[in-house]
Amino acid sequence: MRRLRRCLQHWMIRSLGYWNPRNSRVCGKSGTQGALTGVGLSIGYPLALNGSPAGLSVMSAAPGGPAEKAGIMSGDVILAIDDTSAQDMDIYDAADRLQGPEGSSIDLTILSGADTRHVVLKRERYTLNPVRSRMCEIPGSEDSSKIGYIKLTTFNQNAAGSVKEAIKKLRENNVKAFVLDLRNNSGGLFPEGIEIAKIWMDKGVIVYICDSRGVRDIYEADGASTVAASEPLVVLGKQRNRKCK
């Protein structure tokens, strides 16, 4: 039985890599505090394994950041960082390379569709506003013609407050429902995710965490932070969202 247990444990963790303490440092400065010095990219691994270009996929480019200004978009692939191939580059190594002193430059080789180009970016200090919002009108509809669209790119410490502010502004335009777009969201702070869920939920279990002994930590909505529980809500997501900036 002991041998079987060891085999099962080995099978479960065989795909995991070694957690280097440097990874904690990289993630600790990855923009969850709402500001970052870098080029403004959220990166992940390419979605498809068969036939996909080797490298790192761009999940999103921060609004107003150096990467967005240079035309780098979600779906582009980073092939190299400063002439170092990204083919087998660890995602934390890549994140560490993308960040750096304000005013310093970085050379990226970017694959956009079938076109490869070199882009030189200057690192900047910028505030990460994780929310974009706009009002959408449905032609021909009567009562529910106005819908508030909210795009949330990351769960940093500005996220819940920014979502509430977006809801407030959209309500000034008399929206009747909301769409919360989490596609290509790069992740972030777990507590901030809970606070955002409370915006839409006035009661019930949001999520629970269960450890190996079956002990649960339950996170519930109590209505104290509820802002938009009365309007219909649609949440857009993707099968895979990766984290790291």
Look at the structure and name the CATH superfamily of the largest domain: 2-enoyl-CoA Hydratase, Chain A, domain 1
Could you estimate the helical fraction of the residues in percent?
10-25%
The CATH topology annotation of the largest domain reads as 2-enoyl-CoA Hydratase, Chain A, domain 1
Q: Which parts are unreliable, with pLDDT below 50 for 5 consecutive residues or more? A: 21-28, 241-245
Radius of gyration: 21 Å
| Silhouette | globular
Mean pLDDT across every amino acid position: 81
Oligomeric grouping of the chains = single chain
Number of strands: 14
What fraction strand?
25-35%
Helix and strand composition category = alpha+beta
CATH-level-2 architecture of the largest domain: Alpha-Beta Complex
**End-to-end separation:** 43 Å
SSE blueprint:
Elements: H1 2-13, H2 21-28, E1 35-38, E2 41-44, E3 56-61, H3 66-69, E4 77-81, E5 84-85, H4 91-98, E6 105-112, E7 115-122, E8 124-127, E9 131-137, E10 146-152, H5 159-171, E11 177-181, H6 190-200, E12 204-210, E13 216-221, E14 233-236
Parallel strand pairs: 10-11, 11-14
Antiparallel strand pairs: 1-8, 2-3, 3-4, 4-5, 4-6, 6-7, 9-10, 12-13
Helix pairs in contact: 2-4, 5-6
